[in-house]
Every structure is written in C-alpha cells, then in structure tokens.
Amino acid sequence: MHDDDWVPVSRENCNWVDGPFYHGTKADLPVGGLLIAGFTSNYDERVVMNHVYFTAVSKGAGLAAEMARGAGRPRVYVVVPTGAFEDDPNVTNKKFRGNPTRSYRSVSPLKIVGELESWELYDAEFIRELRRRVEDGLGEIIN
C-alpha cells in the first residue's frame, strides 16, 4: 500500500482489516477467555485502561509482552475482536504516516483463541532502553 492510499481504521470501517490479531502480556490467561477494558495498564499501575489494545504484528505483541509488568513469562495470545475497533492513536501518525505497526484498540472485549509458542524477538538492549524510557515517563508509545 502506498502512503497516499492509507485510510484510517475507525469503528465504522474496521471490518476490512484482516487478522490474525495478537495481544502481548505476562498474564496467564485461558483460551476462550476474554480480555476486557477497565483494568490497570500492563505498563503503569496508576493507569486504568478504557480500551483493550492489540496488533496484527506478532513481533509487536511480543514487545508488549516483554514490556509488561509482572513476574510471569511473556505471552502472546491470538485474539479476535468481539466488536468494533480503531487505530491506536498512541502510535498512529506519531512517527510514521498511517499505522505501520498495525496497532488497534477496542472498548469491546477480545476473545482469546490461541497462544503463540514463539515470535520474533527484539534485541535485549532495545528492551532495556525502552523499559528505562517507560520508567522515566518517556514511553508514551507503549500505553
């Protein structure tokens, strides 16, 4: 797709977006369970999330899992949105035109339909630097 062809994903036109979709976390969740909004952020316990976030890029979900708070192991779940969704405004158009990370959010639950056993990992130094930035309050792209 050429940059000039980019169309923002909104709740009204999300039906054309193809999955599969992924959600990264350290929580141990059951297949068949639902991810719902209204809980604290995976990255900042002071923030209650109004949306559930997900991506069509497994590596991106893996990054979210690596960055998540908690003692569990990083997990990437395969999810299906149960309702309308939109581009994640925290990343859309922030550094690149459009939504190259294919990141989305929804107020509706995401149904867990599977778990990835492996995904492409980021460099460990990149993860450490990103964690430092989040701790310093500079990691807005993560929330």
From TrEMBL:
For this protein, the record's InterPro entries field holds: Arr_sf (IPR038611), Rifampin_Arr (IPR021975)
Read off the Gene3D superfamilies from this record. Rifampin ADP-ribosyltransferase domain (3.20.170.40)
| Pfam families in the record | Arr-ms
Species for this entry? Rhodanobacter lindaniclasticus
Q: Which GO terms describe its molecular function?
A: transferase activity
Which NCBIfam families does this chain map to? rifampin_ARR
According to UniProt, the name of this protein is: ADP-ribosylating transferase
Which residue range or ranges hold the Rifampin ADP-ribosyltransferase domain?
21-119
Keywords from the named record: Transferase
